[in-house]
Amino acid sequence: MLFSNIDILDEQLEHRRGCYVGVRGQRIAYIGREKPREDFGEVYDGAGRLLMTGFINTHSHSAMTLMRGYAENLALSDWLNRRIFPFEAKLDEEAIYNGVMLAAAEMLRFGIVSTTDMYFNIAAASRAVLDSGVKMNFGLGLTCFDGRGARELPMGRELLEALPRYQDGGDGRFRLDAAIHAEYTSTPRVVEDMAAIAKEHGLNLQVHLSETRDEQEACKRRHGGRTPARYFYDAGVFDVPVTAAHCVWLEGDDFDILREKDVTAACCPVSNLKLASGFCPAPRLLEAGVRVGLGTDSVASNNSLNMLEEIKLFATLFKASTGDPTAITPKQALYAATRAGALAQGRQDCGVLKVGSRADLIVLDLRQRPYLRPCHDMVNNVVFSAQGTDVCLTMVDGRVLYRDGAYTTLDPEAVARNAEQSVEKILRQL
Hints:
Largest sheet: 9 strands, mixed
Low-confidence stretches: none
Helix content: 25-40%
Structural class: alpha/beta
Strand content: 15-25%
Oligomer: single chain
């Protein structure tokens, strides 16, 4: 496909007008102001539109779309124990597949091309990713409250048995990560075991870290004053590439630990505010040299996968909390939602609009959008004014998956109907 006469946000997130971008196979093959001589096939008229790299969701639980609006106005502990855990106990493979497919439809509509996901059932998640065409780094949210090691637990065995079959499925679109749900839902033995498994198999690792004040303080009481970050550091968890979700209550040398170990902090502002957990100290993390990605968390705690909503809050929240209007710049917000997430996933050739990168692209329709006029600065308009529904095309690995209300790999009505049927089945059991 050749995008013709289209505005772009280039690899430096600079606005360039009237460009041509050629996609050949899975990759971007040409960017320039002159029409290329090569034939890229279909010519896409880009007049009045903006092309940029697609969004990467650095922390989510995709199948929890089934719980959208199900648990509201609760603190995290009550939210989990009174509503979420009982519902999740009734999930089967079909329900998880249907939930991930519903999430995929929403992700594509809002320009999310890849997600770092922690949940259950590798087979269901993999099938949904391959069927829908999106990308995903998937980790089983391992929990353990007894003396067993990771290799003795069902989830540990599932991961190890799945690696030969599922790793890098769909030409690398589906990747398996190791995962530990959190310090408070695991034991030192299982944490050390999972860290060793990740190292042995060359896996990235996902973990929830310092999400609530109670988590932070209880960890210090249990582990001789050590914070969750120090506890995981000592257990070897950070010896592999780690995405640490939330990072709300970091303190002391936690920031130095994350920088030293090149941990990515996945900031989830909407979810953390909605659950009254607080908010990730993103400006301090960035100042300390820590990579910060942007995540939605689950639809059960956020209620949508609208990444532009997340970007705007990320770019504004810290101005108020720090009293510094320069705390997070618009470019930093877009970087967190794109390239930072790709690097966290280990996808070095993704998350940036440049020749040779994977063609994970989105187009925003700027026409007849009074809220996008005038345009003094395109990046400012995208971050502070654009809406998720402005996304009119989503492409993954050079394949158009969503365009002007139509999907190429899924039927949104059937996907929604299947998800609702799974929900009805579960509710009858509760």
